[in-house]
């Protein structure tokens, strides 16, 4: 016997655009680096999978000019970088019985889990980029563990651009050491929620965020604009029915790349 046209099916309970919006909202809530990462949507709907990030090398400090002499001409040279868009995805399966039983919220839970899964990947990509910082923006810690003095010394790498909002990302093992510092301020004393999600305090003028994605024994001081999330396509949601199992598979994928857009705004302490 065919199903009644008035029957409630799982597909009636899920509106793909609404589900995608719900997933994206939960995803943003889970982005540990959201305050220092700029989201760029200019690639949405554009052809190609490799992007070129334009930049120019500094032409150098101006020179003293004596009377009668020409001003020297410096060559403006490009310093481009490139990044390749990739796809990440995850899927969940909900049975009709689970969706219609009224026990909990399996559809909402699926959106939560899928959003968390993709956010984890974006966070992981961002942390991997920061963990790869070498050269002039990398600072070796003085002792076995990173302490407040190491943070103070590392901040000197910003030079005259030391002002402005700075977020210190640490792994959980460093939290206790920093809290013992005389310069530690708890979150309640710095109105941290007004600035950065997940802040637990402040040390040496940096808002402190604990993240499991930070490489153990390291820390990253990051200013807004250091990272850029290039989106090629917003979260894509697709459904597939299993008519024998009476279930629906929900697939979520996202096309993006995370890039260190401004290397002068990120310091690695290791």
Overview of this structure, please?
The chain is an alpha+beta fold. About 25% of the residues lie in helices and about 30% in strands. The chain has 6 helices and 13 strands. The chain has helices at about 10-15, 15-30, 95-100, 105-130, 150-155, 170-180, and strands at about 35-40, 50-55, 80-85, 85-95, 140, 165-170, 185, 200-205, 205-210, 220, 225-240, 245-260, 265-270. The model has no long low-confidence stretch (mean pLDDT about 85).
What is this entry, summarized?
By secondary structure, the protein is of the alpha+beta class. The protein has 6 helices and 13 strands. β8 and β9 (206-210) form a beta hairpin.
Features:
single chain, 270 residues, alpha+beta, seven-stranded mixed sheet, four-stranded mixed sheet, 6 helices, 13 strands, 24% helix, flat
Topology:
Layout (H helix, E strand, L loop, with lengths): L9 H4 L2 H14 L7 E4 L9 E4 L27 E4 L1 E10 H5 L5 H26 L6 E2 L8 H8 L11 E4 L1 H8 L5 E2 L12 E5 L2 E5 L8 E4 L4 E16 L4 E14 L5 E4 L1
Parallel strand pairs: 1-11, 5-13, 6-9
Antiparallel strand pairs: 2-3, 4-12, 6-10, 7-8, 8-9, 10-13, 11-12
